[in-house]
Every structure is written in structure tokens, then in C-alpha cells.
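Researcher: Please translate sequence to C-alpha cells.
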Amino acid sequence: MGGEVTQEEAGPRQDLFGAMERETLSMRIARNILALIKEKHLRPGDRLPSERELAAAMRVSRPSLREALRALQIMNIIENRQGSGNYIASLEPKKLVEHLDAVFTLDDSTYHDLFQARKILETGVAELAAANATASELEELEKMVEEAKGRVDEPEAFLRLDLELHNRILAAARNPILELFMSSVNQLSLYSRRRTAESFAVRQRTLRDHRAIVKALRSRDPAAARAEMFKHLSHVEKGLEKTSG
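Model: Translation complete:
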């Protein structure tokens, strides 16, 4: 029959990808491919079998497979080379987080993990900043809080100041390893920050929280700085839950 693929045509890699039920959603197809990458069966630069071969190996329709492949392309997991096929991408971290807004939109539960990471890292950052920030850095932080007060009605401007204030506190912590970790976390959190910045109530709460954090930093009180940062992140997380509800 013209549309069928024989065992021989499917190729020797059929067992690797595994059969799947016909009603499987495209996301499950994508997860299967992601699992193969995680288990090192597929590596950066590897060429995937053709759509026909993959569809036969997974026992799914080609439209469902194409949808899964498009999702993986958006996430920069695979790349399509015109006339050559689909390949596993370089998997560089910076490229992988470029479109994580799509990932978070599909699974908001991921935000919980993100805020857990932020609470662990940023509370420590605030604690270090309380001990290491210079007088001029503290003055700049206070100025930024005052500027944010005048921009509370402007979501984009307020978001910019929010990001800058957190980055200034990070710089004041004087820990290059934490800066590396926070660089990735900040990339991941950008989409959630954009969502919460749209809420006037969250912006007002954030302004009060930032003022309390900077006050603790100014007092050179590491424990208070840690506690205020934790409260701030908890408030933002609750605000995000409300916007998602």
C-alpha cells in the first residue's frame, strides 16, 4: 500500500524510538525524543530519521509528529536543515531558554520549581549584599526604589527597574559563581516577571518589598535582608498564581 512503511524501510533505529499508541499527543512524542537526548542515545549534531521513518517507528501520524518536531524547534532542541533533515541542536543553555515562555505556558507548574530556586539563591544573594555592598551601591538602590515609585503605573518601565534592582543587589553580593547561576535563573524567570508586572497590585506590593529589602541592606543586617527577599519572592509567586487562575 502506498502510505505504509515496511520494517526494512523504517531502518535499524526503529527499536530505539519505541512504538507509541496511535492516540498519543504530540507532546508525548516530544518527550520521548527528549528522553532519548537525556539518556545520551541522541547527541548534539545527530541526524534524526526522516519523518516517515519516525512516524512508523513511533506508530503515530505524521501530522502529530510534525507538531512535536515544530515544538522542539521552537525550544531550540532540534534544528531543520533545508534539504538535509532534522538534527539535534547544539543544546547550548542560552539558546535553550530563548523561548521558554512557550514551555511555561504549556506547564505552569514549572513556576513552582523556578521560585524554589530563586528563594534558595536570591535570599543568599541578599544576605551577602548586606555585608558587601558599598555606600554608593546602597545609594543607587535607594534611588531606583524612588524612581520605581514614580513608574508604578507603567508596567514595562517598572519591570525594567525591577530587573535592574535585582541585578544591582547581585553585583553587590561580590560572588561570581552566584552571578553565573543567577544569569540562567534570570533568563528563565523573565516570562513570569512579565506576567506579574502586568498586575498593578503586584507592582505596588513589589515596591513595598523592594523598599524593605534595601532598608535591610542599608542596616547591614544579613538575616533581615534574607528574610525580606524571601517574603518578596513569596508575594510575587502568589501574585503569579492569581494571574494564572
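Researcher: Any highlights?
Model: Confidence is low (pLDDT under 50) at residues 1-12, 20-24.
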